Amino acid sequence: MQANELIAVRDVSLGYERQSVLEHLSLTVHTGDYLCVVGDNGSGKSTLMKGLLGLLPPLSGTIERAPELSRGALGYLPQQTRAQKGFPATVYEVVLSGCLNQKGTRFFYSAAQKSAAMMNIGKLGILELKDRCYRDLSGGQQQRVLLARALCAASRLLILDEPITGLDPAAAQDLYKTLRYLNEQEGMAVIMVTHDLSAALEQAGTVLHIGKTGWFYGTVQEFLHSPAGCRFCKKEED
Length: 238
Ligand code: ADP
Prior knowledge:
By secondary structure, the protein is an alpha/beta fold. It has two domains: about 1-75 and about 155-238, Rossmann fold; about 80-155, no CATH class. About 40% of the residues lie in helices and about 25% in strands. A six-stranded mixed sheet has the order 5-6-7-3-8-9, sandwiched between helices. Strands 2-1-4 form a three-stranded antiparallel sheet. Helix 5 (about 110-125) crosses helix 6 and helix 6 (about 140-155) runs parallel beside helix 7. The longest helix has 18 residues, at about 170-185. The radius of gyration is 18 Å and the shape is globular. The termini are far apart. The model has no long low-confidence stretch (mean pLDDT about 90). Bound molecules: adenosine-5'-diphosphate (ADP).
């Protein structure tokens, strides 16, 4: 792997019990990239995320991750479940729990981890919510808390699965703005699954579109000239 590569997917097929969902996929995520993964429901976006996270071994091909990603440079924001929305802990506790995978066998969080949690709470502009109960917050506020939590784990790469689901348009715009800030100012690479194609095209540098007959991977400009991109532009004009 080259020094600026975080994840290299080479001719990978992914799926379940020999039924492949995605075939012969190749892509590379570099330091500072912003990749949006788009496609219809059931096309294989979450399956790919499981593959990238190392939770689902490829049926064929290889997925290589930079060594630092296994040492905690990767933060993951999963799709929110109903149970998570009712989680009875304070905002500070939820964010701090993002440091769990670095805690090892110690019982207590270190001072450095506590200050990292506070720094990320500040970065996401939710300082005044610090002592509030997570379950009492709005959807947009909860997503900010989860993003601060993911940042405690991530120094190089954030993976987000449908982060704006259930948010009103203003809260979704807020979240996009924060992601862009983290990407542009802090050099955080971002991989985001979204059904919101127009936002993806505004936000991302590269796009992976998973369609019924295959996939497209390239820059936003290249996507707009691809058959799938042209179909999308036509729909927008109608
Ligand atoms: P998306 O995230 O794009 O909506 P998914 O990756 O969730 O799509 O699903 C892709 C396909 O894989 C679907 O046909 C789905 O039914 C199937 N699938 C997803 N998870 C599993 C699983 N755990 N076992 C078997 N099939 C699955």
